[in-house]
Amino acid sequence: MALTSKITTYTPEWPQRYEADKTLLVSAFGDELLAMHHVGSTAVPQLAAKPEIDVLIEVSEHRNEAARDEVLLSLGYVRGSDLSEGHHFYRRNVGEVRTHKIHICRRGHLSVIQMLKFRDLLRNDASLRQRYQDLKIELEATNTGGMAEYLEKKGPFILAALLEGGIRL
Question: Which residues fall in a coiled-coil region (predicted)?
């Protein structure tokens, strides 16, 4: 089973792609929108990544979800399964290739804390960034179970990094 896209070297185009989509995404949220963040590996300079832009959106409440889904669908996003209670997930593909992912959580949700803190740890620690990159490349090369396997095998590294970084979960 393949991953949703191939890991490639970092490109400065990724933050530009995030910024271009950010203005479009605002229209789906109204006054529930609190903040929008570029997260995931494409948000970390010098880190190889699957070229999929991860957007974390913090909302005050999950309300008007049907209207939100309609606007996001018009922008090419399809709602996936919730990743946890209160962690809504959307994806956008071009053909068979994943290009964007959106994570929508209420402010203070554990996923918000984890995604922002892990991104910042990677941005500020070259050794951690290199070890994470090496792990991702190894997991891609040995993957037989698709994205679920890939994410499951990255999990312990992420959790350990957060704990070592003093993040209480």
Answer: none
- Structure tokens belonging to residue 90: 């959307």
Quote the tokens at residue 122.
Answer: 């990677």
Sign of CA dihedral 65, 26, 58, 117: positive
- Buried/exposed code over 24-36 (b: 16+ C-beta within 10 A; e: otherwise): ebeebbeebbeeb
Each residue's pLDDT tens digit, 90-147: 999 988 888 999 999 999 999 999 999 999 999 999 999 999 999 999 998 888 888 8
102-126 burial, b if ≥16 CB within 10 A, otherwise e? Answer: bbbbbeebebbebbbbbbebbeeee
Name residue, tokens 């990544």. Answer: 49
For residue 152, the 8-state DSSP code is H
- Residue 114's contacts (CB-CB under 8 Å, 6 or more residues apart) are 158, 162, 167, 169
The pair of structure tokens assigned to 142 is 């040995």
pTM: 0.92
- The CB-side HSE value for 102 (13 A sphere, CA atoms) comes to 29
